[in-house]
Amino acid sequence: MRFRGRVYRAHNPQWNWAPRSGEGARLHGGRFNRRGVPTLYTSLTPLTALREAQPLGRPMQPLMLCAYDVDAESVFNALSEECCRSLGVSKYDLACSTWEADMLAGVVPASQALADRLRAAGYAGMLVRSFAAGVGSDDRNLVVWKWGQDQLARIDLIDDEGRLSGVSTC
After folding, report:
1. Which residues, including other chains, have CB under 8 Å from residue 145's CB and lie 6 or more apart?
2. Is 167 a domain residue?
3. Is position 43 within any domain?
4. 20 to 30 A Cα–Cα from 144, which one of 66, 70, 125, 164?
5. For residue 10, with 0-12 CB atoms within 10 Å meaning exposed, 13-18 middle and 19 or more buried, which class applies?
6. Up-side HSE of residue 67: CA atoms within 13 Å toward CB?
7. What DSSP designation does 33 have?
8. Residue 55 has pLDDT above 80, yes or no
9. Is 93 helix (H, G, I), strand (E, B) or coil?
């Protein structure tokens, strides 16, 4: 499917110089990316983005909330049972509640293996429900692995006033 729309990210202010880099995910890994794979985790609403960035039970830390306009071809729709069935994607592959523990133990989590399969099949990203604590059934994320000038996804940071000077679109 093609995804066109506005998405949001709430991230650590240390990345204010590169809000589209995916560098934090590349360094640390995430639910849908192994270490070494740059990935942009975005949400379809600002509130979902905040929930994704601030796990419950931990004190609130400073965040930078950014909005982006996205035009991405070849996005896997993990919200569709039919799409999941056609590629053999299970609910466990998506939710994979043990992804952090697996990763720390040196085991490839099912959710990361799924992301590897989707990237290899040519998907630029995946539309998926949020698995953050406190989310509702309508909280959704767009996870993007391939973006930039020569990629299947274009992600434009909304910064009309130049508050993040020196940051260009791609």
Report:
1. 33, 37, 38, 39, 115, 118, 119, 123, 124, 125
2. no
3. yes
4. 164
5. buried
6. 9
7. B
8. no
9. helix
Residue 19 lies in a domain: yes
Where in the sequence is the domain holding 28, given as residue range(s)?
3-157
Q: How many domains does the chain have?
A: 1
What single letter denotes the amino acid at residue 60? M
Tokens of 44: 């379809």
Inside any domain, residue 164 = no
Task: Please write the tens of the pLDDT for every residue from 81-102.
Answer: 999 999 999 999 999 999 999 9
Q: What is the pTM of this model?
A: 0.92
Answer for the pair 70, 5: CB distance below 8 angstroms, yes or no: yes
Summarised one tens digit per residue, pLDDT across range 117-149 is: 999 999 999 999 999 988 888 999 999 999 988
Task: Give the whole-angstrom CA distance, residue 67 versus residue 40.
Answer: 12
User: ∠ CA 168-29-129 to the nearest 5 degrees?
Assistant: 80
Measured CA to CA, the distance from residue 47 to residue 65 in angstroms comes to 10
